[in-house]
Design goal:
With 448 residues, this protein is α+β, with helices and mostly antiparallel strands. The chain has 2 domains: 160 residues, 3-Layer(aba) Sandwich (Creatine Amidinohydrolase, Chain A, domain 1), CATH 3.40.350.10; 252 residues, Creatinase/methionine aminopeptidase superfamily (Creatine Amidinohydrolase, Alpha-Beta Complex). 33% of the residues lie in helices and 20% in strands. Helix 2 runs antiparallel to helix 6 and helix 10 packs antiparallel against helix 11. The N terminus is likely disordered.
Length: 448
Amino acid sequence: MLKKILYICIILGSFSCQKNNNEIPKFTILSEKERAILKDELLEDRFSNLLPKLMDDSGIDMWLLISREYNEDPVLKTMLPATWLNARRRTIIVFYRNKEKNTLERLAVARYDIGKSIKSAWNKEQQPDQWKALTAIIEEKNPNKIGMNFSKHFALADGLVKTDYEEFLENLPTAFHSKIVSAENLAIAWIETRTAKEMLLFKDLVKITHDIIDEAFSDKMIKPGITTTEDVVWFLRQKVTDLGLETWFHPTIDVQRKNDPLKSHIESFSKQKEEEIIVEGDLLHCDFGITYIGLNTDCQQHAYVLKSNENEVPSFLKEAFQKGNRVQDLLTSNMKSGKTGNEILSKSLADGKNEGLRPSIYTHPLGTFGHSAGTTIGMWDSQNGVPFTGDYALRKNTVYAIELNTTVFIKEWNKDIRIMLEEAGFFGDDFFEYVNERQTAIKPIKAK
C-alpha cells in the first residue's frame, strides 16, 4: 500500500512539505523509511527496464563489478539498496544478459543478498573460496564478453582496483582472459541515463533547490550593510540540514558591484570567495546544489539588492541578463543526439560570437553524481574543447547542468560584468527542456 501511495504522490506532484519549522518547500521530504522504499523501487525499475537495453547496446553480455567495503566502485555504489550504505567485505555482482531468452540474471557472489534485487549465489560452506565461486558462474554462463570497470579517461567508469583485478585474473581460467573488455560505455550509460520515474522526482528536487535560493535571496535573509556573503552561504548549508537533505558541494555567494573591477576567469573559478558585506546596488550570484534519493542538483542564479530609490532591477542589468538567457538558448538548441560535447561547444560559442556575445560554456552531466558521467561540453579553462570526455557523444534521456556565462559591458558602471547561470536540463528523444524551469529575470531584493 505504501508503495502505491508513494508513486501516486510523485505522479500527481502532490508532495506537501514537512514543516520542521521551515516554510519552504512545496513537496514532501520523505521520512528515512519512505526514502528507502522509494530508492529501492527506483533501483529495481532501473535493473528491470533499463539495464537489459544498456547491456544489449554495449554488446556486453556479462558485467562484473567487484568492490570491497569503504573502497567502492562508484558504479557499484549506485546499485546498493537503501539499507546498504557500503559494500560488505568483498562484494561481487554479476549481471548476465541472455538476449535470445530476454533474461537478465543478477547474482551476488557474496555472503548476503544485496537487497531484494540481487540474490546471493555463493554458499561459502560448500565453496569457501569466493574467487572459485565466481569462476564457476563464469564457466557455467560462458559469456562472449566480460565487461569490467576500467577506463583511462572517465573516472566514474574506472572503479576496479588493481588488487581485485589481479586476484581475479589469477583465478580465472586463461581461456576467458581474452573475453575481458572495458565496460566504459556501459558504466557511463548506467550512470547518465535517467528513467521516467526518476525524472518525476528530479523535477521536484530542482523546484526545492529554487525555493531555497529564493529564501536566501530575499529580504528575510539579506539586510544590506549587515549581512555578509558568508552569512548567506551558511544559511544555505543550515537550511539543507534542517530540511533533512544534503549538499554535494559547499555553496558560494559572490558579489559584483559598480566600483569593483571584474575578476579574471582564473581568480573567479579557482580561488576561494572572500567574505564581503552585502550593500545596496550589489549584483549577487550563488552556486548551490542538493542531494536527495540518489539525485543531485546544481544551480546558479542572480539577485540584485535594490537601492533605496529603486523599485525594480535597473534596465541595463535586465538587458545583460537576457544575454545570459540567449547563450543558454544557443547551447540547448545545438544539443543533438550523437553530437559530441566538443562539437556542441564549438557551434554554440561560434553562434554566440556571431551575435556579438562573449560566451563561455562549461556544461557537465548531472544526476547520480553532481559532476556525473557523459559528455563534457567545455570547461571554464578549456574553451577550445576537452580531449576524450568531450569526444563522447550526447545520449538521450540524460540530464545536464547547463552551466555557462557571458561577459557584458555595462555603460552605466563603465565596466564588464559576468552573467553566470546554471540550470538542470533534460535531453530526451531529440528534444531539450529544463527539468523545472530556469531563471529568466534577476531576483530583486528590497531592503526593509
